[in-house]
Here is the input.
Amino acid sequence: MTEPGAYSPVDTRARVAIDLGAESCRVSLLRWRDERPTVELIHRIPNGPVHLGNALRWPLDAIMAGLDDGLCKAAEGAPEGIASIAVDGWAVDYVRLGNNGQPLQQPFCYRDERTIAAKEAADKLEGRQRMFSLTGAQPLRINTIYQLLADRAAGIDANAPWVCLPEYVLHRLGGRRVAEYTNATHTGLVDLETGDWSAELLQRFKIPEGALPPIVPAGTVVGKVNGLLAGLDAFRDTELIAPACHDTASAIAGIATNLGDAAYICSGTWSLVGTLTDAAITTNDAMEAGFTNQGAASGGFCFHINVNGMWILKQCMESWGRDRRPCNLETLIAQAAECDVSPGVVPVDEASLLLDGDMPARLNEQLRLNGCDVVEDIAGNEPMFARIIFESMAARYASALISLQQILGRRLNRIHILGGGSRNRLLTRLTAEKTGLKVETGNAESSTRGNFAVQLASDEVGGGPLKAEAMRRWARILYETGDDQVEPAHASQNQPALN
Here is the structure.
């Protein structure tokens, strides 16, 4: 239990957390009632990459318009004023800025295939093992470094300054242009030894240093709200805080329990399977197994592997919707639980399953390649496709955990599942069965909880280095004072998000 008096913050004004998700973006408000924090999800907007010409991009204008609406709702709901706003979201994607500070174009989505050629060329210049040992980041084609190289190959000005998406939102609200450390480590450009941009890689790949934002630690105050929003009473003295800007790092920061003997699975569009380590692990075995080292909010590393997640089901649901077979996620999960044993499992990380479009056919192709019966893509068979996906995800979790324990040289005793997947009882049960480990579920909106925990811990130290114990204490307080975020009637009534 939390010690007496622990609920009293330095500043009792409200706080806002923005969580950018690949399927939806959320604005949440933390307020103090009877000296205890309550968290309310006040605005949710759908999100997803869109095809513009031959490119896959993020609808930045629509995202920002939706966030502005959410922030106005936050101002209305917090007459006491808002002390701070912090933003977390997915990594690797970025916005190029013009001389006027405005976006040059809608940002590319990491799933765009333009990076295939860029990565192949980069691998010839600098070996994968060298890049992994320098940065700790698994050399995936979605990494920012390969996107920057693809920009240059396409004639985009390499000198145009850029900023990753969560930090861009802070910049647009009035903050200075920065790269928060946990998010920066996903670029594949941060030197493990210095914690700064790798001079060797910048020189090797001719990436202009002037285009890169300065790296700052989680919890850094980057400015105050200005512009039109600053005219609202609630935002007249509101600080902008870079939390753990990568949503996984925020989610881990929001876990109230100690992870010393536990693995985590952040289950959403992607599933991240791993654990916390004090130092980066850059052995060849770790690289070949697909693990990566990403900065944690208060030091150390999130050592995990990226597993293709609910993206597969989301793509199936979009396909069925176009075929006039719309599905509700919760109903689909319940029906999948009633299905007979699925015809088999598929390798969820197969390259074809990472792409968008025609996912039921892609799943059937993988079933055929693995010697399994296919499932006819007709009305009524949707639950069987879902069952195959969940069985396959759980099987991949199990193999990833075996590799993780072998690399660590020690056994893990339990799994902490957080994110949207924590609500999926079927996936949770299948994970326990296939791994043989105890499974506990955390908060479905764990990134938002971690975002708030970092804001509150940052406030305690006046913008100085975060203290891990303070961050964990606030995570525990937020866990104890509410089971989950309240989503009232005035929030967007979309079906539950996949991420």
Observations:
- The CA atoms of residues 133 and 282 lie 5 Å apart.
- The mean pLDDT is 91.
- The chain has two domains: 14-249+445-480, 256-442.
